[in-house]
Amino acid sequence: MRSSKFLAACYLALCTPHLAQAADIAGAVQNNGRAVDEDGGYFEIGFATGYLHMPYDTSQEQETADLFIGIDASFEFRKKGFFTEVVQGTQDGLNLGYTLWHNNTWVVDFLAASMNRFYDPDLDNKIKPEDDEDTRNKKLYNRNSFYLGTGLRISHYLDEYVIQYRLVTDTLDDNGVISTLRLGRGWQYRNWNFHCILSAQYTSAKTNNYWFGVEQWQATERYPAFSPDSSLSYSAQFGLAKPLSEKWVARLFTGWEQYPSEVRGSPFVDDSDGSYMAFTVSRVFSSGH
Q1: pLDDT of residue 235
Q2: CA-to-CA distance for 285 and 95, rounded, in angstroms?
Q3: Exposure of 153 by Cβ count < 10 A (0-12 exposed, 13-18 middle, 19+ buried)?
Q4: Angle at Cα 264 formed by Cα 263 and Cα 269, nearest 5°?
Q5: Least confident piece of the model among 31-40, 207-216, 236-245
Q6: What global pTM score does this model have?
Q7: Is residue 14 in some structural domain?
Q8: Would residue 9 count as lying in a domain?
Q9: Strand spans (E) along the chain
Q10: Domain contains 16
């Protein structure tokens, strides 16, 4: 159920099998299930276009809905166990963390900050009891949806498969817990790289209320009171990539994100699931150890 605004990139060079290191599953499967190098990383910048159907109807989310075209940037860097990453096709946003333990097939990461959705400190969205209905409508539509998660990420590499579990809690404003289990696979045919990711996500009632709920005292005719329970949702992504040259790569992503029944009754949701398709062409800048 998370926004796909974060379009970022993964370095396609296949590294020699090595001790597994921190990696967003979107990057790991694009690397055919192989671990990334211990130190180093990449930066990519390029062009992106596509279509995003976003059932979550707030001002911030709708800024990226429908057809889009723009500049795409992404990166991943690691140094002595510390890492920062935002990977193309990710559903987990920008991650900052440290690898606590690893061997050839397992990785345990501490996620100090896993940032998703958007934060705009200039938005006037604090509802006051004295606000009239028009003002409350405007502030509800302008609600923040930024989630700053802190927690653990456990990854298991099995041939071309990656199994990844994440458990994070919002540490910015105590907005609940998210737990995600993902299975991904990457494979290569000639110079085409393919990947698929299937996900199941538990979202706590507190998080669902932060994103989709309306308290009774805030309610208006347009936004009636709504208090969702915790939910279990599913998503799927398929992608392919083709190197155009030593430093340029083209990628295509398509995906589906379920909006479960627990949140379908929200006045912010249009009773449909999310979907997206994106095409990118990027220039790769890599750094070694």
Answers
A1: 97
A2: 20
A3: buried
A4: 95
A5: 31-40
A6: 0.87
A7: no
A8: no
A9: 40-53, 66-79, 82-86, 94-102, 106-116, 147-158, 161-170, 177-189, 192-203, 231-243, 248-257, 274-287
A10: no
Cα 118 to Cα 2, 59, 211: the distances in Å are: 11, 11, 12
CATH of the domain at 143: 2.40.230
Start-end of H helices in 56-214: 59-62, 133-141, 205-212
The identity of residue 171, as a single letter, is T
The predicted-structure confidence for 159-170, as pLDDT tens digits, reads as follows 889 999 999 999
At residue 45, what is the residue type? I
Q: Which of 29, 67, 132, 93 is nearest to 278 (CA)?
A: 67
Is the pLDDT at 107 greater than 80? The verdict is yes
Copy the structure tokens of residue 61.
């989310």
Q: How far apart are alpha carbons 37 and 288 in whole angstroms?
A: 9
In this predicted model, what pLDDT tens digit does every residue of 112-149 receive, in sequence order?
A: 999 987 777 777 788 999 999 999 999 999 988 899 99
Please, is 54 exposed, middle or buried when counting C-beta atoms within 10 Å of its C-beta (0-12, 13-18, 19+)?
A: buried
**CB-CB contact of 83 with 114 (8 Å):** no
- Asked if 92 and 113 count as a contact pair (C-beta separation under 8 A), the reply is no
CA angle 67, 68, 70 (to 5 degrees): 165
Distance, CA of 86 to CA of 115 (rounded, Å): 10
- The whole-angstrom separation of Cα 212 and Cα 2 is 12
Rounded to whole angstroms, how far apart are CA atoms 51 and 63? 12
Residue 70: inside a domain: yes
Digit-coded pLDDT (tens) for 243-257? 999 999 999 999 999
Q: Which two tokens stand for residue 240?
A: 């392919």
Range of the domain at 239: 25-287
- Residue tagged 């030593």 (tokens): 246
pLDDT of 230 strictly over 70: yes
In the chain, the number of structural domains is: 1
